[in-house]
Amino acid sequence: MLSVRMSRSSSVFNAVLSASLIKLRTLKFSGSQVWVPSKLTHLKVVYARNLKTCSTMNPDEMRTPNAPLLPGQVCRLYSMRMCPYAQRARLLLAAKKVSYDLVNVDLNKKPDWFFDYNPYGEVPVLLHNNGYVYESLITAEYIEEAFPEPKLYSVDPLVRAHEKIYFNHWTKKGIPAFYSLLKMGYAEPEATKRLHQHVEVMEGFLKKLGKPYFHGHTVGFSDYMIWPWFERIPVLKDINDFNICPTTYPNLTAWIERMWKDPVVLECRIDPKLMTDHYAQYRTGKPDFTIGAEKPAQVIQEPLENLDGLRDPSTRDRIKKE
């Protein structure tokens, strides 16, 4: 945490103020304007308070969109600690070394204004350049274009199209199969078979590609879009005894081992125990979206539509004002 000491005896501070700031009436702190009185002592107090605000960036504190960013930060990401969809955005921001403000949302206690930025009340939501985007794949592609270095998509349009085929198959088929089996809570034969079928498709993609990653010779966009659920598959082993066997899926097993060596994946990894506890609560219909936070909020017991952090349709809408 940044510590700032303000005193009348600070010659550097007083010199800077007397040279440039003493005649100003407004200062900008990361986009927000603050009224500054003429007196030097008052100016010091206002400046110190803003530095304190900027330095206290608890990821579990629900900051509003107009809250100031820390110096150097360029965007704000509304996420949820265990959400794999939001993890897609975190992976890309980490890969591109973007400095941003992470805000974990308690999806049981979303503020009314959050629906102005995503009418579905879901994460991720990315605020950047006085605008916002939502939906995980749309947000990820926005990050790729807004922060072009390093490039995570292939510049070859055909190769890029095939990357989209890989992660779109997993998104449309693999993810629903993953959650279906997870919700069962045991090794239900049909659900197990269905998930294996789509894992087998991903194995086939890698085998035909003949390269170590879905992106090619290096980890890239498609790998990061697929990875969050393969990070969570060990949870299925704990709950449903589902496993990716190396002899059955040699290419996928090798890919998983390589991904665990990627610095970005390690930076964005989820605590395995917290993940297991989180999904165990999901299955009981009593989710705690603040699990792992320093001060978890009280859990609101309610039925869930699915395991992605969505509330029941009847409670997903904007809070009604009486």
From TrEMBL:
One Pfam family named in its UniProt record: GST_C_2
Similarity comment: family membership: Belongs to the GST superfamily. Omega family.
Q: What InterPro entries is this protein classified in?
A: Glutathione-S-Trfase_C-like, Glutathione-S-Trfase_C_sf, Glutathione_S-Trfase, Glutathione_S-Trfase_N, GST_omega, GST_Omega/HSP26, Thioredoxin-like_sf
**GST C-terminal domain: residues covered:** 156-288
| Cited Gene3D superfamilies | 1.20.1050.10, Glutaredoxin (3.40.30.10)
- Name the Gene Ontology molecular function terms of this record: glutathione dehydrogenase (ascorbate) activity; glutathione transferase activity
- The organism named in the record is Biomphalaria glabrata
Compositionally biased intervals (Basic and acidic residues) = 308-322
Q: Which GO terms describe its biological process?
A: glutathione metabolic process
Q: Which UniProt keywords apply?
A: Oxidoreductase
Any one cellular component term from GO for this entry? cytoplasm
Answer whether the UniProt record assigns the keyword Oxidoreductase to this protein. yes
State the protein's name: Glutathione S-transferase omega-1-like isoform X1
Report domain GST N-terminal positions: 73-151
Enumerate the residue ranges of region (Disordered). 302-322
